[in-house]
Each structure stands twice: as C-alpha cells, then as structure tokens.
Amino acid sequence: MLNLQNKTPKLLVIGDLMIDHYLWGSCERISPEAPVQVVNVKSESVVLGGAGNVIKNLNALGAQVDVISVVGGCEISDELKALLTDIKVSSQYLITQKDRITSKKSRIIAAQQQVVRYDRESTDEISSESQKQILASFKDIISNYDCILLSDYGKGVLTFELTQALITLANKNGKKVLIDPKGLDYSKYKGAYLLTPNKKEASEATNINIVDDEGLTQAITQLKDECDLDVSLITLSEDGVAIYDDNLRTHPTVAREVFDVTGAGDTVLASLGFALACDVGIDDAVKFSNLAAGVVVGKIGSATATLNEIIEYESSLNKSTSDEHIKTLDEITLLSKELKARDKKIIFTNGCFDILHAGHVRYLETAKSYGDILILGLNSDRSVTALKGENRPINVQLDRAYILAALEAVDYVVVFNEDTPYDLIKAIKPHTLVKGGDYEGKQVIGQDIADELKLVQFVDGKSTTKTIEKIQQGN
After folding, report:
1. Where are the domains of the chain?
2. CA-to-CA distance for 368 and 64, rounded, in angstroms?
3. What is the CATH number of domain 10-316?
4. Which of 69, 190, 242, 343 is 20 to 30 A distant from 124 in Cα terms?
C-alpha cells in the first residue's frame, strides 16, 4: 500500500452538516391504537452525518480538518458543535443563521431493522449574507489547506453562486476541489478537479443509461467536458471506480464482505482527498479509496476507516508488502490501542529469529492461535550480539524483520534495541505473552504486564545454532 502513515495533510470541508440520531430497541407487539409497531427503546446514539461524516473519515485517517458551514439557531447546533469538539475539530468557521434548523435525522431501529425515520431540518438555500460570510472566511484561510472537499447533501449550503465562487477562488490559489455532488444539474460544479457521483447519479445527471461500457464511456466523458473537470470519475458499486482523464480505465472494487453501504460515498470522498493532499497520483488515490470503502462497507452504520484498518484489510487480500507490517515503537503503541478498541486479542512474543526454520514457523503459528493479532518483538543486531556472541547475527535485523513480516502468522514486527523487550511489552500491554517451553518454571520478562503467559514447546532438533553448525561442517 501507499506509505501514508504519519502523514497529516490539512483539508477543508464545506457542506451540509447534520446529526444522525439512532434509537435502538426491540419490538414485541403491535399498538392497540393503530396498526404500527411498539418499539421499546433500550439505547440512544448520535453521530456526525452529512459533511460531518466526511470530517469523521478524514479525522480517522489522521488528517488535520477544518469545516465551513451554516448551522441554525437551535439546540441541535449546540449538539453538533459538541460532536465536532469530541473529535477535536474546531467550530470557529460555523456561521449561525438563526432562522434555520440544523439537520437531525432520527431513526428508530428494532432488531437491526429501521422502523421509521423522522427529520428536523431546514432545506431552503442559506441567505445571501451567510454565503458572503462563507466566501469571506474561505478567502482568508484557503492558503492553509492542501485540498478542498465540498460535501453537497442538498440542504441549502452549497448554492449555485457560492459553489461557483468557491471553485473559482480555489483554482486561482492552485487548490484541488473534490465534490460529492447532489441533484440533476451539475453545472454548479463546473471547474472542479473531480466529482464522485455513483452510477445512478451520473446516469440521471447526463441522461445516459449506464448499462454497458459504451454508456459508461459516454457518461464519463460528457461529465468531464460539460463540467470542465481535470478528472472524471464514476463509482460503480461492486464493479469498482471508473476514471477518465486522457483515457478510460476502471479500478476493481476490493470489498470482501458488504454489510452496510451507508456513508460509503463519504469515505470515498474523504480518502481520495486525503491521498491527493499527500501528492499521490489519481490512480493510486482511487486504489486507496477502494480499500477504505472496502473497510467501511464491512461495518454496520455510517463508519470510518483508519490507516491501520486499511493496511490490515489490504493484507487480508494478500496485496500488502512485508515492510508495511514492520512498525516502530510509536506506531505499535498507537496501533495496539486501536486494536484493543476494536476488541482484538493481542499476542506478543519475541526472539532473535536469526536463521528462520520450520521450528520457528510452527512456534509462531501456535502463538497466533491464542488470539487475533500476533506482534513479534525482534532483537536488534546489537542485542543479538550481546546474547549470542560476536559472530551473531548471521542475518541483519532488517532482513530478519522483512522475512518474519511475510509470514501469515505474524501481523506486526517491531525491532527493539534493549537487552530485554520489557519496555516494548509495557507499551503494547498484550493480552497474552508467549515464550518457548524452556521457560517452564522461570520468570518471564513482561509476565507482570500481560494478562496471561503461554509456553510453547519447541520442535525437536530444530534450532538456529544447529543449522549454523551443519553449515560450518559442510553437511
């Protein structure tokens, strides 16, 4: 995968903010008052929706995000600002228009089935004064950002005049504008870098029925020409993403399991913007967004994908390289916290693994069987020499790490330079610590940190020392 870890591009999102509100319960009877279900509500949750879901996705990827939008003079606006604060996104560029109601979509869910939805919102176009304030803020801060994302949900923020003014100003400042479009008239998006319509939306906007390659070619080229786009793009659901700039090509989807496509369009817009803001080419950016979308459609509800989840997902598709699984101490510390938040059971073991043999592989396969994620602490060259003598290691630490990271049983490798892996174990705080059977009855480093210790018996006759002896003897 692309090396996007530790990248923190700055992106600006402009569009329709809303709250997605869920009432979760069960239904066991029909109301005697009317032929409707009676839902006994057990819990309630609220999350950012609309352009807010784009912000959440960018935040999950590690971007620095700001937002410009218009909210109403209502309690919902205060609730929305609190949700932004929770993910450390500023509300300083939110404009209050007192006669508006901020969008809040409430869904009643019983047995994972949506029973009814009711909305509170304003959908009229924002006032001319609000549009002026947005444009003034945009002029003041545009130079701070690597990329601009417009998330249009048709709730009145992105008017024709405002959208055109934003695109014109962005182009003058050399900033790419990516837009998730809404409605049938795409002329208000003219001059953008790219749009992200799905096949149905593109068909309606172009009046071309996209049922084959010919229809796709006509629609995607028409969008590029009529909207004066740098890149024309159409998402094709399970068939992937089609791109047209100088030529047409399609990148296939990489979704393994689809549970819910809610918010997948927001993920595509956010991940494309994130990658392009990191100076990634359009084809690689689309591949990255395909992976991100593959993660979120495997979750229930509007979801996000972190870089670590995308790397893990790509690995599950056998498309990642070994070096993506070699982590620093800081990276594995953050990753461990994220994995635990996703209820993954972490296993840790360590060793020199100088010349890899079948005994090593079986040991690691057994270790992995105790949980979900196996993290391997690898002794550095210096610590191997301290343990084994001046003639060791045979293989340098980078080579050893790369080979180990390629094993199916090993999820992540971290090289440590200390004599013991205690600091590394302390940072990871694994659920299970695994060591060889020769530690029976002995104190194991890190045993006081892990929840449990597992000892694995070695395969008889298999050891690095014996392998080296055979080579030296010419056998």
Report:
1. 10-316, 323-473
2. 36
3. 3.40.1190.20
4. 190
Q: Which residue has the tokens 């196996």?
A: 374
Give which of 437, 443, 395 is closest to 415, Cα–Cα.
Answer: 395
Stated pTM of the model: 0.75
Say how many C-beta atoms besides its own lie within 10 A of residue 463's C-beta. 15
Q: Which residues are annotated as a binding site for ATP?
A: 198-201
The catalytic residues are 266
E strand or H helix at 348, and its extent? strand 346-351
Task: Give 407-430 pLDDT, tens digit per residue.
Answer: 989 999 999 999 999 999 999 999
pLDDT number for residue 260: 43
**What φ, ψ does residue 415 adopt, rounded to 5°?**
-85, 130
What superfamily in CATH does domain 323-473 come from? Answer: HUPs (3.40.50.620)
CA atoms of 360 and 79, how far apart (whole Å): 54
DSSP 154: S
Residue ranges of the binding site: 198-201
At which residue do the structure tokens 């530690």 appear? 439
Alpha-carbon gap, residue 248 to 1, rounded angstroms: 23
For every residue of 278-345, which 3-state class applies, written as one string? CCCCHHHHHHHHHHHHHHHCCCCCCCCCCHHHHHHHHHHCCCCCHHHHEECHHHHHHHHHHHHHCCCC
